[in-house]
């Protein structure tokens, strides 16, 4: 799938979000943050330093129709990607990097008294903005001038606390390969090296 088709898919999801009846929808701004983890097992070790592979943080906006609980959200996140030591040993060209991510999701909220549940799914695009191996401006330019953005699919679920806090587990899978290819490959999405799990927390004002 070429970049134009990938962008078309992203625009379709965005149109779905914007087509929500904004006259009756509740609009909220907030802050979204998350920690990427190597293992998604829900236990006391999930946020230990040895299991962390990076983070994301940034502003988010949400539209939700109160009666149905259906809506969507869009975020602009600054992220940092880290690789396992074993991965760096296997591939010397790997280095940690920073990126900007724009996820666009459809969302369904379910109220359960003082608590709530939510599920979300959509698309995201990442643009690399920094490389830990780059020593000067010329190296930064040379490292990224021929590389494209990463495009992928995401999904998540979790609980809502006190109406303002979302705590959940999120999955992301890249559809394009490591900022180098503009074509979608099913093998790329299925490769576990291109799949990420995030423990995330959103706070809405």
Automatic annotation (TrEMBL):
<dbReference type="Pfam" id="PF13568">
    <property type="entry name" value="OMP_b-brl_2"/>
</dbReference>
<dbReference type="InterPro" id="IPR011250">
    <property type="entry name" value="OMP/PagP_B-barrel"/>
</dbReference>
<dbReference type="InterPro" id="IPR025665">
    <property type="entry name" value="Beta-barrel_OMP_2"/>
</dbReference>
<feature type="signal peptide">
    <location>
        <begin position="1"/>
        <end position="25"/>
    </location>
</feature>
<protein>
    <recommendedName>
        <fullName>Outer membrane protein beta-barrel domain-containing protein</fullName>
    </recommendedName>
</protein>
<keyword id="KW-0732">Signal</keyword>
<feature type="domain" description="Outer membrane protein beta-barrel">
    <location>
        <begin position="26"/>
        <end position="173"/>
    </location>
</feature>
């Amino acid at each position: 799938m070429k970049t134009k088709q990938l962008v078309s898919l992203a625009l379709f999801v965005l149109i779905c979000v914007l087509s929500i009846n904004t006259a009756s929808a509740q609009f909220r701004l907030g802050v979204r943050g998350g920690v990427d983890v190597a293992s998604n097992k829900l236990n006391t070790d999930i946020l230990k330093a040895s299991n962390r592979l990076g983070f994301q943080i940034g502003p988010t906006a949400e539209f939700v129709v109160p009666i149905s609980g259906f809506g969507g959200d869009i975020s602009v996140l600054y992220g940092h990607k880290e690789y396992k030591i074993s991965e760096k040993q296997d591939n010397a060209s790997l280095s940690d990097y920073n990126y900007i991510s724009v996820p666009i999701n459809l969302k369904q909220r379910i109220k359960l008294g003082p608590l709530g549940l939510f599920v979300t799914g959509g698309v995201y695009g990442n643009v690399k903005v920094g490389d830990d191996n780059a020593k000067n401006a010329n190296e930064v330019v040379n490292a990224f001038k021929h590389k494209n953005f990463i495009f992928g699919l995401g999904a998540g679920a979790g609980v809502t606390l006190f109406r303002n806090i979302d705590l959940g587990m999120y999955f992301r899978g890249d559809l394009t390969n490591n900022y180098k290819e503009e074509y979608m490959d099913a093998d790329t999405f299925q490769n576990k090296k291109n799949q990420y799990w995030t423990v995330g927390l959103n706070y809405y004002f």
